[in-house]
Amino acid sequence: MKTFTKSFTQQEPVPEAAIARAVAVMQSGRLHRYNTEPGEESEAAALEREYAAYQGSDYCVACASGGYALHVALRAAGLEPGEPVLANAYTLAPVPGAIHNAGGRPVFVEIDADWHIDLDDLATKAAASGARFLMLSHMRGHIADMDAIVRVCDTFGVTLIEDCAHTMGARWNGVPSGNFGKVACFSTQTYKHLNSGEGGLLTTSDAEIAARAVVHSGSYMLYGRHGAVPDEDVFRGIRLETPNYSGRMDNLRAAILRPQLRRLDENRARWNARYRVLEQGLRQINSIHLPQRAPAEDYVGSSIQFRPEALGADGIPEFLERCATRGVEVKWFGDPEPKAFTSRFDSWRYLNPPAELPRTLAVLSTTCDMRVPLTFSTDDCRLIVDIVAEVMADL
What we know:
Distance between the termini: 16 Å
Number of strands: 14
CATH topology of the largest domain: Aspartate Aminotransferase, domain 2
Radius of gyration: 21 Å
Number of domains: 2
Structural class: alpha/beta
CATH superfamily of the largest domain: Type I PLP-dependent aspartate aminotransferase-like (Major domain)
Number of helices: 13
Mean pLDDT: 97
Order of helices and strands: HHEHEHEHEHEEEEEHHHHEEEHEHEH
CATH architecture of the largest domain: 3-Layer(aba) Sandwich
Helix content: 25-40%
């Protein structure tokens, strides 16, 4: 019987250049991002400058986490306490958490069969709620029709904020993910495309939002030491009326991230090579559904989702158990009991009243999720497919 022995949570080592730079920062003792010598650029400021250039945005703010960046994005864009915020129902718990933390009230939108936000339900709920904001999660790297989403937002006067935690380095019709809305937020948590343990990046080309985000992040009056910020006159108008939420990134994490950023496009190709092996193999298994991804979507395949629809929700637990006994770790978004990183909208009970989203529940009822770490080879991915196929054949 074939078994798989590698860990689904083991990341590649941090590059030697990142380790060397991190050691230098620690040896200096100056880990705080504003602890610089005259004329010196901090690691955090350099990361902001470099990531803004990579993303093609004017401004970037390095934050303590991706969830913190989402919170700051909403506040900097002008969210008022109690306001509704549209959000796709298939997302991770930190997204509604960020909306709640910013004082907003999530209004969940249904998803379609391929895990994208449902455009018809988005238009219906934008009209009914009067929401001024959409926090769109490109959940697990699936990018919806961004041109259509922008049209809906323009029609209803909705400001688009993109959660790009799973799409750093991805594109839609050649445009980087995150460049369709007013603000974008990225994560550098360990299981994302850059790894600093925890961390986040906020990008925008709106000068006032950028200035507010910098002050919100905890710049005190040291905003001039950031690497990609608006002119002084923009700060002069908002600096005394913008609260400090103290969620900066430190120099140590920035030092770890900068060398990784230089390898991001190379790693995107490596992830996609592994993803394609899994995708092509899983498609050959009867009753497993995978979406046909749009030609416009240049994704990053750092995870893969599929639905063994013939099993139904009742058959998924046994499928997971049999895969696990053979070393293949599969997560399930249809589990009514939240486990590890997976939960669904009806388990976030601090949000009242609970949303009624029958189409989303139906899709998630058989949605399975698998990480694709770069520590796997393409041969490893073929072995995983073989094991899943054998498990399905036995059920």
